[in-house]
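pasting input
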Amino acid sequence: MRVQKRTIALSFYFFLLILPIYWMLNMSLRTNADILANFTLFPRNPTLANYLKIFTDPSWYSGYINSMIYVSLNTIISLTTALPAAYAFSRFRFIGDKHVFFWLLTNRMAPPAVFLLPFFQLYSTFHLIDTHIAVALAHCLFNVPLAVWILEGFMSGIPREIDETAFIDGYSFPRFFLTVFVPLIRAGIGVTAFFCFMFSWVELLLARTLTITNAKPIVATMTRTVSATGLDWGLLAAAGVLTIVPGALVIWFVRNHLAKGFALGRV
Amino acid sequence: MDKWESNRAWFLILPVFVIVAFSAIIPLMTVVNYSVQDIFGPGQRFFVGMEWFREVIHDERLHNALVRQLAFSCMVLLLEIPLGVLIALAMPKKGWGVAACLVLLALPLLIPWNVIGTIWITFTRPDIGLLGKTINDMGIAFDHTARPLDAWITVMAMEVWHWTPLVALLAYAGLRAIPDAYYQAAKIDGASSWAVFRHIQLPKMRGVLTIAVLLRFMDSFLIYAEPFVLTGGGPGDTTTFLSIYLVKIAVGQFDLGPAAAFSLIYFLIVLLFCWLFYQALQNVGTGESK
């Protein structure tokens, strides 16, 4: 009896959790006129017109391409720089190690709003405004520390005897790192890549400020549509649904590591 | 675990150091630079010392934004932590349900923050939103664009909807780490389910809950995109939190000096909490939760 009550409460919670997302999905399948005129729980005349418009209008679909480009760039930069650093933090004691580790955390927690103007100035100086690399570098502010912390958490779970044995067997450090160690923590690398991808994908403020047209991400395209007159709710909803797709596709693979990733590898 | 002593490890950190220095230290120094100067244009700048800080500290609107921010972050904790723990306790311990719950919980966490705002606009608007229309049809006036209280309720609801799953995920991870032997011992002693929660589950979750509290506090302290999209900080200033106010000054009014001074104060507050977070994490690492 108790168990049943629990399950009912939990189901009710999940119902509430899904409802807003469902409502957006519902809207994305209707035309704007239909949304404004009729209030229905299910789309009566479902149409894919909104999605078609997004996939055929360059000002919409280029947003997705731009986002994908800078998110991928950022993930690659974050992972390649964080891997050796995380190894250093998990295996060595050196001057200033704790301070650097803490300093990295402060950047993960820093308000992006604080860095907005200086970023704009800095990237203007280097003529990087409105390029993908600018956004990718800006997102390194919080993603590199994140990657270091998560990877350190995973690496500390690997016994040090493995390193010692490999070095006794005559492995050089780069060879050991790439052929023995990296394969051992590939799950951790996957999780880290996922979190870098995600945090870069969901960020709006920096991505919007550092781009104008050529590298404008989809999240910025959406807010600019909000501020314009003659809001097309159906189109907006369809664009929103499409931004959920990349995350939804990979949830299944990372479901057991979500807590660890969000807790910076500390759980 | 004993670590090797070697300062050559610095070479491994160098790439991270360089890239984060480029995206953190240089910008931060620029902020410091702005905060003590009055800039009219290229080449026309005057050293003004602490003047901007004085102006910012006495700024009535900043005080209001700070109070609002603290109230918001505290309410976030009060609502999300208990709710998250309850959800984690209700979740199944094995079987196919575990994976299903985890996937569902993760869904809101992976949505871009501005889309969260969009979802909640479409959900709560009095004319086309499912929730807004239903409430208004029941005879209760509800409009988050015009009434401050409604705006607050909507922003809170959105925030709780968005981030409670994270607390639940963390709490669930903590619960799963409790060995079965503890529950068996409690059963033999005839402990009530409340006693099990109070004396076994809660103490064992202390580590993850500390992380959850600090993460939620920090991230809600930096909130920008969701309320910006949902309410734009309005009606009036009623949902203008610190980041929104800062962006208003910096980009909207282009007041570089005050914005920079404000940024530094903001950053110092964050730094303080960050340090607390770090200390707590150190204790988690060495404490009983391992």
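fyi The two ends of chain B are 13 Å apart (CA to CA).
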